[in-house]
Amino acid sequence: HDNNFPLILGGDHCISIGTISAIKTARKDTAVVWVDAHGDINNPARSISGNMHGMPVAFLMGLVEGANKLPGFEWFKPTMSPKDIVYIGLRDLDQDEKETIRKLGIKAYTMYDLDRLGVGKVMEETLDYFKDRKDIHLSFDIDAIDPFFAPHTGTAVTGGLTYREGNYICEALAESGKLASMELVEVDPSQHSGVEHAQTIQCALTLIGSAMGKRLL
User: Known catalytic residue: 53?
Assistant: First the structure.
């Protein structure tokens, strides 16, 4: 139903192959804001690590040849085009991913861009880019947040979003009136057992609250 707000909790980021496929099938014009340290647009044929959670965008865009021939993927059809997505927070990309993002002309804000422009300007430009879209889906990987604030994730990378920058992204999307669904992934309390896991969980809950409309005042 159009007035429902799907909130999905992962799990690693490969769940987006299913979640975004479903959302784009139901709401075909949905745009995607992908907040992540990583591009997740690796191709299985060329991936260095072979990790499935580094490939969902490649699957969703139809860059994986014979994807629906993989076991359990008989249902799958690509649902996304390069114009459907904006990346925010990138800082750990394989060379093949960099070339793919450039080649496809995907709008992407790295941490350099966040430093240069500020998160406010980045969100202003993102919402302007999607000004003709009715719905936006937020796909938020907790590793987009710097591990100083959210250490409990499998592929943490230093130099990420601050706690407030992450929340501002969610707040700006909620305030736009276009945020129609969200997934939050890669929270893993089993990582970094020497650090209090409530720190990352609380950060994740705050991000969800901001996306659902909670405000400071």
Answer: yes
pLDDT in tens, 40-83: 999 887 766 667 778 999 999 999 999 989 899 999 999 999 99
In the chain, count H helices and then E strands: 7, 6
Q: Kind and range of the H or E element at 141?
A: strand 136-141
Torsion angles phi and psi, residue 162, rounded to 5: -75, 170
- Of the candidates 40, 97, 135, 171, the residue annotated as catalytic is 40
- Residue 186 is among the residues annotated as catalytic for this protein: yes
- pTM for the full predicted model: 0.95
Per-residue tokens: 35: 């907040």
Q: 55 with 12: CB under 8 angstroms?
A: no
Query: What six digits make up the tokens of 4?
Result: 């429902």
143: annotated active-site residue:
yes
Q: Determine contact, residues 82/58, Cβ cutoff 8 Å.
A: no
Residue 30: closest CA among 62, 2, 67, 59: 2
With a CB cutoff of 8 Å and minimum separation 6, the contacts of 159 are 91, 111, 146
Task: Go through the chain and tell me how many residues it has.
Answer: 217
Q: Which of 94, 135, 146, 186 is the catalytic position?
A: 186
Nearest-angstrom CA–CA distance, 171 and 181? 14
Peptide bond into 11 cis (omega under 30): yes
